[in-house]
Amino acid sequence: MTIALYARRKGWPVSGVTVRLRHSRIHADDCAECETAQGMLDRIESEITVAGELTEQQRARLLEIANKCPVHRTLTSEINIRTTLT
Predict the structure, then answer these.
(1) What is the per-residue pLDDT for 79?
(2) What HEC string does 2-52 produce?
(3) pTM, 2 dp
(4) Count of the separate structural domains present in the chain
(5) What residue numbers bound the domain in which 23 lies?
(6) Where residue 25 sits, what CATH number does that domain have?
(7) 31: left (phi over 0), alpha (psi -120 to 50) or beta
(8) Residue 83 per-residue DSSP state
(9) 46, 19 in Cβ contact below 8 A?
């Protein structure tokens, strides 16, 4: 949604955006770029397909925007969940 809104605001020829996600659990030792050094981690792989005639610079900018969207920021930040039963 963030990508489509940004492209529309810029007037870029985007006719559709599809996002596919895959979730898996991996060992921390198998992740060189992760801060956690032991145990298991959740890994989410995101594949974004943008339909439209875009330049490489526009595509690169849309990837930057995707990595700054509210959902991405929430998933990559520290999460504190408090659950109550009412």
Answers:
(1) 85
(2) HHHHHHHHHCCCCCEEEEEEEEEEEEHHHCCCCCCCCCEEEEEEEEEEEEC
(3) 0.78
(4) 1
(5) 2-76
(6) 3.30.300.20
(7) beta
(8) -
(9) yes
Say if 71 falls within a structural domain. Answer: yes
Residue 82 within a domain: no
Burial of 39 (0-12, 13-18, 19+ CB in 10 A): exposed
Per-residue pLDDT in tens (0 to 9) along the chain, 86 residues: 999 999 999 999 999 999 999 999 998 888 887 777 788 888 899 999 999 999 999 999 999 999 999 999 988 888 888 999 99
How far is the C-alpha of 3 from the C-alpha of 67, rounded, in Å? 10
Q: Smallest Cα–Cα separation from 9: which of 53, 71, 65? A: 65
Residue 38's pLDDT is: 82
The residues pairing with 84 across neighbouring beta strands, listed in sequence order, are none
Neighbouring residues of 45: CB distance < 8 A, sequence distance ≥ 6: 21, 22, 24
Six token digits for residue 13? 């020829």
